[in-house]
Amino acid sequence: MSASAAGPGAVATRQRILVMGASGYIGERIVSALAASDWATPLAASRGGARRAGANLESLRLDVRDAPAVRNALRGVAGVVNCVAGDDDSIVAGARVLFAACKDQQPQPRIVHLSTMQVYGTAHGMVEESAPLRGDWDGYSAAKVVAEEHARTCASVVVLRPGIVYGPGSPIWSVAVGRWLRAGRLGDLGPAGEGICNLVHVDDVVEAVLRALRLPDIAGAAFNLSLPAPPTWNAYFRQYAAALGVPPLRMSPAHVRFETAVRAPVLKAGELLARAARLQWRPAPPLRPWFLRLCGQQLQLATGRAERVLGLRWKPLEQGLAEAAQALRSARTGT
Question: Fewer Cβ neighbours under 10 Å: the N or C end of the chain?
Fold first, then answer.
């Protein structure tokens, strides 16, 4: 789908854009950006149904594994954004249904498929979009590779592979990490935290989606999304702690082992008990081994293609961290 230039005095025609996974962290922001544009009317689709509606916003309750329902949702849309999350089976099943349905549409809508850096698996070094998709990190990375295989069967697709999506309200990378930092449960990990933290602000991901929906001649392309000079995880923790006003913490190996081997199982058990008893107690999630493993990975996303083709310019890390810290403080005080 290409952008069309309206002549003087012309009234722009809004295009209906189906957003699948619209109730998720990224999906909600994509819906808001589309609704605020002068060219799109988002159709916000999620399994639980949309939480809001407006003059320039349609909503739809949709199970992405329901093939007839997906085919029906595709009628009359000019573009699709697939940012469905969930378990591994749902990611694969939803992609299979979506791209099978889109092949039957004439003309095919432009589909922007949100993948992840995790498709590169255990690769090391600078990674271009043409690198093999190993999917050997875990079940999630393998599921995302299969979803991309389904995506490649559709000629109109554009794939985005974001790194660590942070920003105000980011559930893991800004909220959970911020809570860990404030509680003295996370800090400089020493050698274990010298991996590359491929941060990308949520606003940059949303901008990439909007441009991928409209730019001509990019169907079939994939784009990495990350700061071009990302920090190490240790540097990220130090800088975010500073933005939060938290004293720097150097974690010893014994402290890390305590967090993962002792505190994590206790917190998880407490969370399950609180949920069963319908209590409001919600501690910061346990620090998991997969998180620490990620902190040591020496993989850096090459972002030149996104800059050249999509014209992206990345939000400075200092600004992004300040926004995330302010959002966390506001949530804590209720303002």
Answer: C
